[in-house]
Design goal:
Layout (H helix, E strand, L loop, with lengths): L10 E8 L2 E8 L4 E6 L18 E4 L1 H4 L10 E5 L3 E6 L4 H6 L9 E10 L5 E10 L2 H16 L7 E6 L8 H15 L3 E6 L5 H8 L7 E6 L1 H18 L17 E6 L5 H7 L4 H10 L3 E10 L2 E6 L2 E5 H11 L7 H12 L3 E9 L18 H16 L14 E13 L23 E7 L3 H9 L13 E13 L12 H8 L19 E3 L2 E3 L4 E12 L7 H7 L6
Parallel strand pairs: 9-10, 9-11, 11-12
Antiparallel strand pairs: 1-2, 1-4, 1-8, 2-3, 3-5, 6-7, 7-8, 13-14, 13-22, 15-17, 15-20, 16-17, 16-19, 17-18, 18-19, 19-22, 20-21
Helix pairs in contact: 4-8, 5-6, 9-10
Bound molecules: N-((E,2S,3R)-1,3-dihydroxyoctadec-4-EN-2-yl)palmitamide (16C), adenosine-5'-triphosphate and calcium ion (CA).
Length: 572
């Protein structure tokens, strides 16, 4: 009688040699697992001679073989196929060959499997294991089966466009790519077109010209500034190709389907750290090879009806704007420029007067102080984006995004810092980030307002970014989860007229006495906006979050507990 069910995938189970041990190696296509365990030699048998049983092949139907292939065989290793980097024929190592006393047999065949091994703190390494056997037919059967199963990983990139900034961070971008990344890409059979940038915005401009269709992803080697270039190039290109006017702050932007990979080689590497959990080039390369996909919110920044920039990490005015302003003058210091500038800015202790208006992100499930961290396959991101999509469908359709006008909140005051972050902004300087519970793809940003406070209080707030204590738990700090916001500085003159109006140039560039309270000591010029580490010229801006506008070769932060439970390459 014919069965209605599709045939069960065949389990391949053989005794192969690994170094000088005999191993039972199993490929279970049904469960997408490759596992191996050492076979203990029977008493009285010579350990160095696996003997005739070496070529024993257990080639059984799935159900029959299950009993001999537990998921984590004792003393064995199990690797999900999704975490195999590559499989290839291996060179015969003469040393082993001679010591195996196989001279009387035909020359053995070997294949190497490279796979991901998890280390501490989200670091990944590429480990390899080589299996040997003397039966040529069996060898080709294994090679074929492994290649076939890897072919089914269709989300993996085959062709990548790589931009390297040779001057980012400690100026090691090229070296990092050549030594740590290119060998892995080549082992995984990925073809690359590599462009070493020759000037700022080279990558951005190139993305407007290049045939992006022929690539499965774009990789940037550098820091947040280099990522920002690629982000602007890709988003800009997609909007141009789909006739979306990016100068319209309410335009419904078209999503970018081509994924971006980040090989960290910058000074802060915040986007990489916050989406992978570490700024480590090899770890990033492995996430790219496995074809990870992490959707990411993007904020658009406008001044009136003019597009200024996109931001994915920090859009900050006041403290972080000033840190950036001074650090740009000291680029020669490399990554240390931010610490020097941070110290200087801290001592200067400026506050800025203005008005912030925002609309809360009502549909989101989380809130900035709920301590629910965004992790891989984040439930909050999935639900929030679904809710947002439904909400947008019910609103009037069209190419414009329509916000209800009735729920604006306006806060006026003097601020040490105004920070809008659409992700945690975790980075090596602050491993939990500016807003630890912000989500990568929920369609919202956390708006953090740090009001005028004493220098000591501001230091206490800053120090909390380096510990597990709540940096929002101060009377002078407020945080809101928003879908958009607008800022107008108190000393705002229409910046459009500034280039021709001597009076207003003077107002912008020279100290202003706070007109309402001449004795309050609020004596300062306007700050600037720090947009993912790039300066923005205008101070009066509006920002809007675009839910999951782009995708990265990343998977978010793997939950430590989960990582432990399913750690695939765990030896029990
Ligand atoms: C006492 C130690 C307190 C340490 C507090 C550290 C808080 C660090 C928070 C970092 C948040 C980074 C957000 C990411 C922004 C990126 O889009 C952008 C582009 O790469 N990077 C920066 O703007 C670069 C921003 C770099 C900011 C560095 C701030 C350093 C502050 C130092 C204050 C020293 C006070 C010492 C008093 C004795
Ligand atoms: N060939 C080049 N010459 C000069 N500048 C370049 C070149 N290629 C890229 N850039 C610019 O260099 C700036 C900084 O680069 P990058 O982000 O890689 O390093 P970083 O600023 O040290 O790190 P981070 O942004 O993480 O703080 C970017 O704004 C980018 O536009
Ligand atoms: Ca977000």
């Amino acid at each position: 009688m014919e069965s209605d069910h599709p045939p069960l995938p065949t389990v391949l189970c053989s005794v192969l040699s690994m170094k000088r041990q005999s191993c039972e190696v199993t490929l279970d296509p049904g469960r997408s697992l490759l596992s191996w365990r050492e076979l203990r030699p029977r008493r009285g048998r010579d350990r160095s001679r696996p003997g005739i049983c070496l070529t024993r092949m257990l080639h059984r139907a799935r159900g029959l073989v299950n009993s001999c292939t537990p998921q984590f065989p004792s003393g064995g290793v199990t690797v999900p196929v999704a975490e195999i980097v590559s499989v290839g024929e291996a060179e015969i190592d003469e040393k082993y060959y001679n010591s195996m006393k196989w001279q009387h047999m035909c020359k053995p065949h070997a294949f190497t499997v490279r796979y991901v091994q998890r280390k501490r703190k989200h670091r990944w390494r590429c480990k390899e294991v080589t299996f040997w056997c003397s039966d040529e037919q069996l060898f080709y059967q294994w090679l074929q089966a492994l290649h076939d199963i890897l072919e089914q990983q269709t989300h993996r990139p085959k062709r990548l466009l790589v931009y390297i900034n040779p001057y980012g961070g400690k100026k090691r971008g090229k070296q990092i790519y050549e030594n740590k990344v290119a060998p892995l890409f080549s082992a995984a059979g990925i073809c690359t077109d590599v462009i070493v940038t020759e000037y700022a915005n080279h990558a951005r401009d190139n993305l407007y010209e290049v045939n992006v269709e022929k690539y499965d992803g774009v990789v940037c080697v550098g820091g947040d500034g280099m990522f920002s270039e690629v982000l602007h190039g890709l988003i800009g290109r997609v909007q141009k190709d789909s006739d979306v006017d990016h100068n319209n702050p309410n335009a419904q932007l078209s999503r970018c389907n081509i994924r971006i990979g980040i090989i960290p080689a910058g000074s802060t590497d915040c986007v990489c750290y916050a989406t992978i959990g570490i700024n480590d080039p090899e770890t990033s390369a492995l996430h790219i090879i496995l074809g990870d996909c992490q959707p990411l919110d993007v904020c658009s920044v406008h001044h009136k009806r003019t597009f200024l920039k996109y931001s994915v990490s920090l859009l900050g005015y006041g403290f972080y704007g000033d840190v950036l302003k001074y650090s740009e003058k000291n680029r020669w210091l490399g990554p240390a420029r931010y610490d020097v500038s941070g110290f200087k800015t801290f001592l200067t202790h400026h506050c800025y007067e203005g008005s912030v208006s925002f609309q809360p992100a009502k549909w989101v499930l989380g809130s900035p102080r709920d301590q629910i961290i965004c992790t891989s396959r984040c439930y909050i991101c999935r639900q929030s984006s679904k809710q947002l999509e439904e909400q947008q469908k019910t609103q009037a359709c069209g190419s414009e995004h329509r916000d209800q006008d009735d729920d604006w909140t306006t806060i006026k005051g003097k601020f040490m810092a105004i920070n809008a972050v659409s992700m945690s902004c975790a980075c090596p300087r602050s491993p939990k980030g500016l807003s630890p519970a912000a989500h990568l793809g929920d369609g919202s940003a956390d708006l953090i307002l740090v009001r005028k406070c004493s220098r000591l209080d501001f230091l206490r707030h800053l120090i909390r970014h380096t510990s597990n204590k709540d940096q929002f738990d101060f009377p002078f700090v407020e945080v809101y989860r928003v879908k958009n916001f607008q800022f107008t500085p108190k000393h705002f003159e229409d910046e459009d007229t500034e280039s021709t109006d001597i009076g207003s140039i003077g107002k912008k560039n020279f100290p202003q006495i706070c007109t309402d309270h001449p004795s309050c000591g609020c004596n300062h010029v306007n700050s600037i906006w720090n947009c993912d580490g790039e300066t923005v010229d205008q101070t009066a801006i509006e920002m809007r979050v675009h839910c999951q506008l782009i995708k990265l070769f990343a998977r978010g932060i793997e939950n430590a507990k989960l990582e432990d439970d399913v750690n695939p390459s765990k030896v029990l």
